[in-house]
Amino acid sequence: MQVVTDGKHKWIGTDKVNTGKGIVDTTNPPEWANVFEAKFLDRMEKIKRGPQVIHAKDVGQIITLTGLGKGWKVVEGGSGSGHLTCWLGHLGCTVHSYEQRDDFFKIASHNVDSLGLKKVKMKKGNVFEMKEKKVDLVIFDLQDPWKGTDVAFKALKKGGYLLTYLPNVQQVTTWLASTKEFAEHRVVTNTVLDWRADAEKFRPKSKTLAHTAFICICRKLK
What we know:
Rossmann fold, 2 domains, 6 helices, alpha/beta, 12 strands, seven-stranded mixed β-sheet, three-stranded antiparallel β-sheet
């Protein structure tokens, strides 16, 4: 995948890229165009979208709250469009991602394949029936994650983390009640305030992305 740019705007594609200035052959670009290999963030802009994804600001929090990285074994319940799935694979985790809906499974699988993430294993089925053991991190992006608390506890190694992504307060309180066997509970939300990057009009943007979901995390210590 390539980035075509006039130095100010960019377009992403392969071989022949459709831009606002016409179709550019990346092997023989015109004088006004620069072409270079797309980075991971560029390629993520082109993934297929289906259900609402875990927002980038929350992906960052998930990484820092768990310290996940290369070599981690992760089980994900609820692939959705595969946004978080792809980030986990990019960071070097071995990912077992479960999705029950056919349409979501197809979208997530396509996105994982398009990014060449070989350590991601897409699984069509119910994550609450997972067979994986000695897992470093279990992630549930589901409406009823408390149904999987026991199976997650059994799958996790000592020191492993259980993380859920929940939009509503009522869900969080139910989750807290279901995870008493775990320790080090944290419930986190975060807000990103973008500013206009204009020297003459430097001020906050009019739209702020506030609450997306509660990031709920706990740890198996026994």
